[in-house]
Specification:
The protein is an alpha+beta fold. The chain has one domain (14-80). It contains three helices and four strands; from the N terminus they run βααβββα. The protein has helices at residues 21-24, 27-41, 73-80, and strands at residues 14-19, 51-56, 59-62, 68-71. β3 and β4 (68-71) form a beta hairpin. The radius of gyration is 17 Å and the shape is elongated.
């Protein structure tokens, strides 16, 4: 079970969580991460009073010509040959 004792002072009620792509699209991982974060915040049963901002890592590719292309999850999977 997650620790329910806050281990830091919270002056700002906004909390940013940065997730790798594989965790961002896996419900079990998200639930485990959220339970741990809520425990660290001292509010295991809810997130009231906190503005939890989920930031998902994203990837960009820049061509030699300088064109910037965003790689969403499907594009990354296709480029890696995954998900087929």
């Amino acid at each position: 079970m997650a620790d329910v004792t806050p281990n830091f002072e919270l002056n700002n009620r906004a909390v940013t969580v940065r997730l790798p792509r594989d965790a961002a699209y896996d419900l079990k991982k998200i639930q485990t991460i959220q339970r741990t974060i809520l425990g660290q915040l001292g509010h295991l049963g809810c997130c009231s009073g906190f503005d939890i901002r989920w930031d998902y890592e994203t990837e960009f590719i820049v061509s030699k010509a300088g064109k910037v292309n965003h790689l969403g999850p499907q594009a990354v999977d296709k480029a890696l040959g995954a998900g087929a």
